[in-house]
Structure prediction request, 702 residues.
Amino acid sequence: MLYICMILLASYTVEARYTSEALNIDGFIEEAWYAADTVKHFVQSFPYPDSFATESTYVFILYDDANLYIACMCFSEGTPIEASLSKTEDYITVYIDPFLSRTNAYKFGVYASGMKDDAMLLDDGKRIDYTWDGVWYAKTKVYPTMWVAEVRIPFKAIRYKRGLTEWGLNINRYIVNKNERIWWVPIDPKIGVRVSEFGILENIKPKVKGWQLELYPIGVMRTDSYEDTSYIKPIVGLNMNWRLSPQVSLSLTYKPDFAEIESDPFSLNLSRFETYFRERRPFFLEGKDIFDEPHRSIRAFYSRRIGRRLYGGVDVPIMFGGKLICKESAWNLGLLYAFTEQAVSQYDQEPQTHWCVIRYIHKLGSTSDIAYCGAIKKPTAIDVRFNYGSSLIYTLRRRYTYFRSELYHAYHKYVDSTVSDVAFMASMDMNLPNWYLRVYFRYVGEDFDLSPTGRSAVVPGSFNGEFTIGPSKIYRTGKIFRLQVLDGIIIYKDPGLPYSIGNTVMLNLSFRPYGRLAAYTFMGKNYYTVYVDGEFRDTSYWSWDAAIVYTSRVGPQLSYGVSASYVHSWVWGFQSIADYIALSTSFVYGVSDFLSISVAPYCKVYWVDHRLHMIYAYLRPSFNLNFTPTLSLSVIFELAPIYEEGSYSIPSINAGYFLSWEIAPKSWLYVVTNELYERTEKGMFNPLSHVSAIKLKWLYLF
Prediction:
């Protein structure tokens, strides 16, 4: 009852007060902070939703012409404060929506040790983009019964609506030794953080002067060796981001170094679709909240198609790239152009190509929108095909309902013919107070193919449908925090075949103070078109699988997870029905305040016709040494042994280290070495390739 009264009386509005005094960001609360308006009432989302926080928290907010200042006093009188560079630690996070968009927001997190964490919330909090890298400053200080965080966010570093004096705001604090999460504006733990439900930061009036120009020179000294060949390759590149206004920015890059400092992990892919890899290249991360779409089966634009790596290890060079980003309260627009040079490998080739992409998002109401994306791939050679992919996506967001419909079009023009087709998807998720409902279907045209510009992990001519329902409840007290039991029907149809149908049962359990258990079963009759002995054939079979997963934590030092599953189904890579057992574990252990070890080994054992066919294991331990909040060293070892039809092999071993130093906000020094060892016929491991690089990225902010 007390919580309900507080909700009714609370306005969740705080004033940003102007200061003419220069504030030192040093972890000490100065007298000037006490003139600020204060956020001090917080409510738990875990472990006891709707209850008041057990520790006091005070957040002060000030601003001057060029910066937003935030100071946080996090009292902890009932439990020790965890401030460690390598263990789970106390933190506080501030979320800001400078457009009052009710869908997207910036995230600024500060840990008690002084480490920073920034990101962007997208799609009303349903997605989070950790690749966003902002220019901001933070310092912390730990006292016997509290810790303090001071933050300075330059207005130049974020986009905001000029003339808008009210921004969205929410604040979250985590207390490790109580596993307690508290919020200024309470959140429903069933639906998570929602940008549409943020409070208001009022009376904020930035007065930024200057060019708002970022020059980002990049220098790389790279040494490569492969078998008996080695060379040294110096690379110099330049990126430019020019904020024409708080809402409009232009990004340019010329002959950039798009080589991956962090390599993609090894993956054994036995499915019919390509492996999805996330984007890490700086140019493509700018404006990612506009261009990117949720990771799902169809994407009209997949940025890793530009400058892709050919079969044979040759990278397609990007000669020039440009982006224009326009953000308004009611609409967002992104334009991208890139030109790639010709590249040829032993097994593949790519001609000179022009790439053009446009994405436009228009708001409908407070939290819904419609978005269009068009991507063109046009080789300079006349006799090479022209490719166009597009999407039109409508999203309806409500507190307990999320509806999305998607229409895709793929068009390819050859010398004397054209191919065109569409795909359509629609889904609705309803996360009601005590129930969960999901409805989904997808149709794909027989000539649909988005692979030149996007990604379509779907079968042309197929149809999918899903209906899932079940009780889903949060318990305010007791050992069980959340219980969810779902039953679902899945329908699938390959072209020219009867409908495949299956049933799923899912169980999700969350416990206090730690622990989560998930279980899953499936059984169904399948009719598929499969690939056997170089040709496509129609087949039918029964498939079933079951899985169980448990994750938990032991204090701030150890987080772990274990899972096991059994599957009987068609395995595309074997061209046969197979049974397999998958076992996996994951551990992250903080050895000390500076050293942590993480490892997530897994193993799959396959049987074909009741005979052992393959054992595949993967091991990638990582040793992480954090010297300071901005300087870290990771040492990685990657091993993937395979046993197949009586033959045991370790195709390769990869080892390396990765040193990263954030010299200043958004300015980084990387030192990286990767060694690849290949197994010889005699069973020995010889060095196959060696790559070392020193990479410096330095930001000049005008």
Q: What stands out?
A: The CA atoms of residues 162 and 246 lie 7 Å apart. The longest strand covers residues 535-554. The chain has a mean pLDDT of 88.
